[in-house]
Amino acid sequence: MNNVQQFADSLADQLNRSVEIDDCSLRPLALTEQHGDIDDVRIRSILQRHSSPEVFEYAFSLDIAHAAGPVRYPPHPTLQTLPRVCIPMRAHGELHGYLWLIDSPALTEADIAAATGTAADIAEVLHQQSQSSATALDREAQLVSALLTSPRPDPPAEVLRDEPLLGFARPLKALTMKLAPVSGGELLDGRAMRGTVQELMYARPTGDSLLGYSDDAIRLVTAGEVDDDRLRPFRHALRRAAQRRGWSLYGTGIGSSASTLEELLRSGLQSEYAATVAHTRKLEQLSWEELGPDVVFFALPWTTQNLEILFPGAADLFADENRLVRESLDAYVECGGDTRRAAALLSVHRTTLYYRLDRAKELLGDDWAQGERRAGLQLALRLAMLIRSSV
Fold first, then answer.
1. pTM confidence score
2. 285 and 178 share one domain
3. Residues 123 and 74 in one domain
């Protein structure tokens, strides 16, 4: 980024005012020394290197991402900002960031013309850097895909030799962060996912890691333990990138530790499954070790056919007219057969619960609560819950 800083410093000296260069996510790439008036937004950029959600929303309220030229911002009373001029930096048809100037005292047309020229020069530098980093990113993403996709092709020997992480000096873990489009959002496709990963390059967890993607998920291979503090900045950056595209985070899964390529592949499959279960449980994140009984459904298709294998007749419980019976069975099983607790959980009288359990006998047979039949029903009900929650 030295060239970017040099361009910014030169423009600041020419105009005798502060210059800020941001990437497309409003993260500062270059900040000059202070000239003239200053406000809280400028101080935050210098000290914290990011914008608050309120400033972020205000910055994009004038649609600078699609602006063809400089955009003037009036002062914002609530945010206590000074007036600004924002110049989108484009090269070869792509947006690479924004050049910001405080518009106090007011910039002249000659000032804005000089700043526009500098913005174009910086955009060209960023484009060249982007092309170089994109090539490296593509190689890295292809490697992650090869490591975590089943059946896994053996990575070339030179790749293993050139990637220190794959020497397994420390155990590795695979992470899967699933994404889902919301109404009106962009489609989840390779091009959009690639662009998202480019935005996340500098937010990846500290320490050694490899970053990639699949059709509907961001994939990460990282060394060492993955604690919340280490992952939080990356997840925050991913959430912001997803929101801009009209996507939502579907769930994050973490696989078990791996010390070989085969174990790493298994960790990747585990992380993908844990991400799906995290979504069904309405959890932000779930590790393989935290799955509990749901681990039994790993690699098992979540289908009504498998409900019938676990307990013949279980699919009948999911007819609309049997909803109350199914919910009563869910509560009864969850409470370990304690009818008092189950009735309280359902907020019904125990007589009502007994009536519904008698109805279950009519649907499932008199022996549904006995021995292996009961165990099979419990598994079927759990699988059915996962199926319903995953939709």
1. 0.63
2. yes
3. yes
